[in-house]
Structures are given as C-alpha cells and as structure tokens.
Amino acid sequence: MQLIDIGANLSHESFRHDLDAVIERAHAAGVAQIIVTGASEDESVAAREVAADYPGVLFATAGVHPHLARQWCKQTGETIRALAATTEVVALGETGLDFNRDFSPRQQQSSAFEAQLNLAAELGLPVFMHERDAHGRFVEILKPLRQRLGPAVLHCFTGTAEELDAYLDLDLHVGITGWICDERRGLHLRELVARIPLERLMLETDSPYLMPRDLRPKPKTRRNEPMHLRHILETVAACRNMAPELLAEATTETARRFFNLPPAP
Fold first, then answer.
1. pLDDT tens, 4-17?
2. Which residues are registered as beta bridge partners of 128?
3. Which domains occur in the chain, in start order?
4. Span 70-81, pLDDT tens digits
5. Are 185 and 198 in contact (CB under 8 A)?
6. Terminal CA-to-CA distance of the chain, rounded, Å?
7. Cα–Cα distance for residue pair 157/74, rounded to 1 Å
8. With a threshold of 0.85, does the pTM exceed it?
C-alpha cells in the first residue's frame, strides 16, 4: 500500500531536529511521498529546500497563506515565480481566504488570492487552496478564473454539503484531513466524504496540525506526523464503505496525476 500526503508543513520548526525519523516513520506506515506546504515567502523557500534534501520523496508548494496575505508584494510574487520554476515545486499555494481569524485584512487576502490564481494560470501549475468562513467571496474570485486554471484542490475541506457541491461544480479536487476524526466538529464530514468523486479525493495530514483525535493509543505529543495518514485513510474508507487498500490505490493515483509526480523511489 502506497499513500501520498498532499499537505504537510515539514518546514515547521517542530520538525527541525528529527525530520529523518519522521520520514522513516511515514515510510513504514506506507506514506511514499509527501507534498511540503509553502505558506509564506520564507516558508516556501524553506519548503523547497526541505524537498530538495529528499528527492523523489518530498515535493513542495510555493505560495502565501491568507493569514499572511498582508505580506504579499511584487517581490513576493517574483520569489514565488522563481520557486515555481524549480523541479521540487509542484503547485502554487497555499493560497485562498480565511475570514475566520482575519489575520490579514480581507481586501488584502482577496488581492493576494487573485494574484496567485493568475500566476498559477500563467505558469500552468496546479493550485493548492485554503478557505475558512469565506465561501461566498472565495467562489466569487475563483469562478471567473476557473477556466484558465489547471487542476485545483481545496485542501482540508471542513464545510457544508452546499459548499462541497459548489466546489465540485467548479471541478475542484478535495483534500480530507484528520478533521474527519474529530468528534467535536468533524462528524458531518463522515457523511459528506462519500459524495466526493473518487477521482477527485485526496488525503493529507496538515502536519504538525490536526492530530486525529481518535488515535489509540493516544500519542504522547500533540505534533501530528505524516505517518498518521494511514489512520485518516482507514477512517475515510470506512465512511465510504470500501476497502482501505482500494482507497489508497485510488487517492495515490489521483494525487500523482494532480501534482504530476514521478513514481516513488
């Protein structure tokens, strides 16, 4: 069984001292390849550097998360463009809108999101997107640009049935995280996940965040790792009433096609 984690923040400082061991544990759990998320100019540079240290196993995205959209400027755009030309970077993002916390003003979020969508369309790269409590504005920006874009994924989907239908109508892929394992806020996803077409479903941990709450035995640390993707797979497979091996095969094929990844070494 081979899995691909489409979103892990492995350039995060919590992985600084034991990344080799983290990747070894992931490999032992069947995670063959991982996409390292770039969420700011500096983090995108770091994500590419981390990916370069593990050729064929780690890849990276390059973009600016809506939390940091206030940092977007011409120089940032040029840095992202340069990173996108490297072999390690396989998608633009993480980009989108987050009106839940509003760490950056909404207008700056919208401007940075639109700029990155246009850059992805120009470069012909897939887009790795984030949306939280901003569905209407997100669709308003994305829809006019959708025909110019290639593959696009809404990562860490946590929304409603109506929002899911709207994203599927826009031909988006959907990333599911350990949120589905959270009995406090993720139970609705257990019904919705069966509505996602198999060829548009991908799995991710969003490490070091979103540790699956129903892991047993309970981990001693709160740091999530890509090795826990296997648990997310099993949860999603149960919700879809299918064998985990078949779901692994399908989601891995989808991720490899979406990001244009080579076979795992």
1. 999 999 999 999 99
2. 153
3. 3-256 (3.20.20.140)
4. 999 999 999 999
5. no
6. 14
7. 30
8. yes
